[in-house]
Amino acid sequence: MSLHEHALFLFRSAVGSVRPALMLKRAVKLQGDGCPQLLVKGQAFPVKRDLYLVGFGKAVLGMATAAEEILGDHLVRGIISVPVGIQESLQRAGMQEMLLKPHSKIQVIEGAKDNLPDQEALQGAVAIQELAEDLTVDDLLLVLISGGGSALLPAPIHPIRLEEKEKLTKMLASRGAAIQELNIVRKTLSLLKGGGLARLAHPAQVVSLILSDVIGDPLDIIASGPTAASSHSIQDCLQILTKYNLLHNLPKSVETVLSSSPTKPAAPEDYSHVCNIIIGSNTLALDEAKHQAEGLGYATLILSAAICGEVRHIATLYCQLIHLLCLGFAGVREGPLSDKVRGNLLQLVEELQIPGLNLAKFLQALRGLGPERPVCILAGGETTVQLQGTGKGGRNQELALRVGLGLHRAQAMEVSSALRRCEIIFLSGGTDGQDGPTEVAGAFCSPELVEEALQEGLDVEAFLSNNDSYTFFSQFQGGRHLLVTGLTGTNVMDIQAILIKATERS
Q1: Contact criterion met (CB below 8 Å) for 400 and 430
Q2: Torsions phi, psi of 424, nearest 5?
């Protein structure tokens, strides 16, 4: 297989390892008949009377299907809010195992087109709210949470209208706000987020099973923390709005809610009836991709599961890393050029402050890699894009194109020709199967693709300036360089794969 085919195989393997049903069945069991207990990763929760289920996110349909199979007749009723079109997409893909059976006790409400809150998602949120409010002390509520859950649980605090909250979210995103920042603002303005669902469900026992799509797996940030005590205050929200110059451009309703919100986060003891459990994450997906890459003969390293920052900077990080590795392949481990690349890399990592990234340790591991084996470098996380144009694309496609362009430029400038003596493929894709407002998950890129584009008279910089990476990749070989998976039914952020093989060409 080619490097392109290997990269696709690794991405699909990673996504396959975090299928929601698989992870839920590993984590959850129901034990006993007379006095049944719900066992979650070794913790026991007695089912005293009725067991209910709610869920929201891109992966909860598959989670709910598995949960209903496990819970059987003990499940009284369920409501899940999932992305528009996901049932049809999974049906079309033949993924019947991720669909609820006929006559299921779980009601499915689809909403949040393009991952944005809408009236359909609001309908789902209201239904979940009403179910939670009716619970008693003897009931148990199983909550399924995954990435995309925030947009699918959008009930705003009165008097804020959904359109006002959506407009504010779009403005923050367009100015480059990170997902963590978006979620802090969302939950401050939401009825069910920031622990709101858990408060409404009290005094029932609440057990949340969470598929993380946020770096570091913070319980109060994933899906805006509907069952977790918030670690953020009103001041945090105000600081974010100030940072992006939005504080003095707010609707009156938002000003009203912000002025009346408590100044301190809720006390942890208010959530003694809640147990939040992470059952899947980006790290699990990367571990599977590493296992598969090694099986294909690659010397494989995981850079980080917490890659974050603006795509321009992350693209530069990857280009410098690839350049340094290719120099090592060419035997240029010391000298002015390798010292310059290494210095640029160290400075960039210091500026980016990527959590848990030990670059010194990673560079030491790189020194042990040679041209006799192809190399695979894996990473995960979630980048951001500062929108400047009106084009079509997403963070993964733009990241891939920026890496390809950066490598092409480095090839043209480099005197040692180390980059030109290696075959390089870079892949970046969203594990949910969707990258921005497009039907693709991400893209593949290489310096050769950029060279081909330039020879055909395409202005790569112009595509990037207009945030139009999707249109760029669509120009070639029927979109072969676009990563197309369809909605996957799961979501653990993004995955990047760098595949490098030494060649004989000079």
Answers
A1: no
A2: -130, 130
Asked if residue 130 lies in contact with residue 142, where contact means CB atoms within 8 angstroms, the answer is: no
Is 283-502 assigned to CATH 3.40.50.620? no
| Domain 22-155+194-229+267-280 superfamily per CATH | Glycerate kinase, MOFRL-like N-terminal domain (3.40.50.10180)
Q: How is the beta sheet containing 43-46 ordered, strand by strand?
A: 28-31, 37-40, 43-46
Residue whose token pair is 């899906």: 223
- From first CA to last CA, the distance across the chain in angstroms is 23
> Residue 481 carries which side chain, given as an amino acid letter?
H
Question: Would you kindly state where each structural domain of the chain is located, as residue ranges?
Answer: 22-155+194-229+267-280, 159-189+231-264, 283-502
Position 506 scores a pLDDT of 41
CA distance 222 to 219: 6
- The CA R_g of the chain, rounded to the nearest whole Å, is 24
Among the residues of 354-437, which ranges form H helices?
Answer: 359-367, 395-413
Instruction: Report d(CA 324, CA 363) in Å as an integer.
Output: 9
Task: Tell me the whole-structure pTM to 2 decimals.
Answer: 0.84
- Spatial neighbors of 341 by CB under 8 A, at least 6 apart, are 320, 323, 324, 327
Helices within 176-251 (DSSP H only): 179-188, 196-201, 234-243
- Neighbour tally for 78: CB within 10 Å: 25
Return the exposure string of 383-419: e unless at least 16 CB atoms fall within 10 Å of the residue's CB, then b.
Answer: bbbeeeeebbbbbbbbbbbbbbbbbbebbeebebebb
In whole angstroms, what is the distance from residue 124 CA to residue 182 CA? Answer: 21
Contacts for 180 with CB less than 8 Å, ≥ 6 apart: 214, 215, 218, 221
Instruction: Output the tens digit of pLDDT for each of the chain's 506 residues.
Output: 899 999 999 999 999 999 999 999 999 999 987 789 999 998 999 999 999 999 999 899 999 999 999 999 999 999 999 999 999 988 988 889 999 999 999 999 999 988 878 999 999 999 999 999 999 999 999 999 998 898 899 999 999 999 998 889 889 988 989 877 887 888 889 999 999 999 999 999 999 999 999 898 989 888 889 999 988 888 999 999 999 999 988 999 999 999 886 655 545 457 999 999 999 999 999 999 999 999 999 999 999 999 999 999 999 999 999 999 999 999 888 889 999 999 999 999 999 999 889 999 999 999 999 999 999 999 999 999 989 999 999 999 999 999 999 999 999 887 678 999 999 999 999 999 989 889 999 999 999 999 999 999 999 999 999 999 999 999 998 889 999 998 888 989 999 999 999 996 54
